[in-house]
Structure formats: structure tokens, C-alpha cells
Amino acid sequence: MIAVLLAGYAVLVGFGLPHRLSEASWASRAPRLAISTWLAAATSVACAALLAAAVLIVPAHVLGDSLVLLVQGCGWSGHGLPALPWTVPRAVGIAAMIGMTLRLGYAAARVVGAQRRLRARHRRDVRLAGRFHPTLDVFVLDHAHPSAFCLPGRGGTVVLTAGALRTLPPAELAAVIAHERTHLDRRHHHLLTCAAVLDRAFPLVPVFGETHRELRRLVELAADDGATRNCAPQTVARAVLRLAAPPTTSALGMGSTAVRQRVQRLLTARTPLHRSAVVARALLVAALLLLPAAVLTLPALSDAAHHCD
């Protein structure tokens, strides 16, 4: 019964939530909260699917008791794993667990490996063909087309082209650099990597693909907001337009994603989300993260006093 509930929850959230969430108008007003919501939804579906398989292998009350014991920290004596006879549901659970684990591992190896190789190549090219600009603390590539991007990694690197230095006035140049440093400071590349891994591992589950696509847009909105902390929104919008170009690399670029929406957003007065709306969406994030585990632990919590006798 618990396995069916978890599997049903994973299907409901994995297939039903993406459409509603992608149409939510509040996301562009609070991109960081929207990022958290998308990541929580994807994480919740993955955890629910894994727990559904685990419940087929190990009885639900054993898993629930184990989680409660882990939180209580009151010892494991007297709570050993019971003998588990071979059954068809258990075989299905083992096969599902192995399959999901292997797909996640393979996807992580391919995505992370490809990103590391690409970033290493870009970093090598920047070191060889670029020059360090000590005043701006950026690397400059001798290229006529105005462009800017960041290369995550040890220390992080902001890269500008010579065309960007010639084209951008000082205020817009500062906005561009602030945008890229926001990407680095908030580790947006890690968020995109996690989303890419889930999307590659389970491409038929809508929530994973939508999370990956939406995060690419939302991190740009969040970085724009980071730039507006020290620069006028109009200045950031002009910089976005000057650098508008199709993405040429996997790096996080200033003018490569959702340009029209970003410019309109920066030039339009936005009313922040009301505190009650923020609280409601924060509770949704918490519910998405906690519900899969709660299905297992709530029955065990009813007998919590027994665990620490």
C-alpha cells in the first residue's frame, strides 16, 4: 500500500505539476523561490520513486523505524533487519532500485564528465588566448563580437571579449560583471548540473525536463536581480540587449537566454510577492521535500516512545 502511495505521488507530481508550475506568473517575480520550487519538485519525485522501490524490498515499517531511529539517535539494538524471503514484489523492487541507481550513475558520469572536459578546454583557451585585466578582475578574449560569460570551477572566472570592453559603457560593464559574479557566487552551475543529470537519466518524466529548461531561464533572472543590487535595472537591460546573442557554449552567458523576457522584466516596475504568498510557496517547497519521507515515518512516530526505551 505504501509503495502504491509513493508511486502514485511520484506520477502525480512528476506529470501533473510541471504544467501548472511553468505557467505560474509569480516565478519571474521571485526567481530564487521558483528555482527552489522546481528543484524541490524534481527531488521529491526522485526520492518518492526510490522509496517506492525500497518499500518493495524492505517492509515499510522497518524503513520508517530506521528513519526515526536515525533522527532520535538512540541506538539500533533490538531493531535489526528481519529475515526477508524472496518474493515477486521484492524482486521487482530490487530490479527497479538497481535500474534507477544505474541510470542516475550513468547520467551523472556522462553529464559531469562532459561539463568538466568542456570547461577545462574553455579555461585552457582563455588562459592561452586571453589576457587578465587586473582592474576589472576578469579575463579578456581578443574577439570583436561583444560577449560575456563565466567559467565555474576553482575560483571561478569571468570572461569578456574585447568587443564587450569597446562596446559597453562603464556602468553597463559593471552590470555585466555583477551578473556573471552572481552566477558564480550562487553556484548556479551546480543547480543546472543536478537538473541535467535527472533530465538525462529519466527523459520521459516531464518534471525533470521542465526543471532543466526552467532553471536555465530562472538563473538568468536571478543573476539579473543580483546585478540590480548595485546597478540600475535600466542599465542591466541595456547591457543584456548589447550582448544579446545565441548561446555558443555551455557557459553561463549574460545575453544568451530569454533576452526579451529579461529586458521587459527589468524595464517594468515589479511588485514583490506579498509575504503571505512567499510563505505559502515556501511551505510548498517544504511539503515537496518532506512528503515522501513522511509517508514512511508518520506511522513510526506514533510509536516513537518505544524506540528509545
Automatic annotation (TrEMBL):
The protein's organism comes out as Candidatus Frankia alpina
Q: Which cofactor does it need?
A: Zn(2+)
Q: Which InterPro entries match?
A: Beta-lactam_resp_regulator (IPR052173), Peptidase_M48 (IPR001915)
Keywords recorded for this protein, A-Z: Hydrolase, Membrane, Metal-binding, Metalloprotease, Protease, Transmembrane, Transmembrane helix, Zinc
Molecular function as annotated in GO: metal ion binding; metalloendopeptidase activity
Is the keyword Ribosomal protein assigned to this protein? no
Residues in Peptidase M48 domain copies: 115-198
- Describe how the cofactor binds: Binds 1 zinc ion per subunit.
Q: What is this protein called?
A: M56 family metallopeptidase
What PANTHER family does UniProt report for this protein, alphabetically?
A: POSSIBLE SENSOR-TRANSDUCER PROTEIN BLAR, SLR0241 PROTEIN
Specify the domain of life of the species encoding this protein.
Bacteria
Similarity comment: family membership: Belongs to the peptidase M48 family.
The answer to whether keyword Ribonucleoprotein applies is: no
> Transmembrane ranges?
37-60, 92-113, 278-301
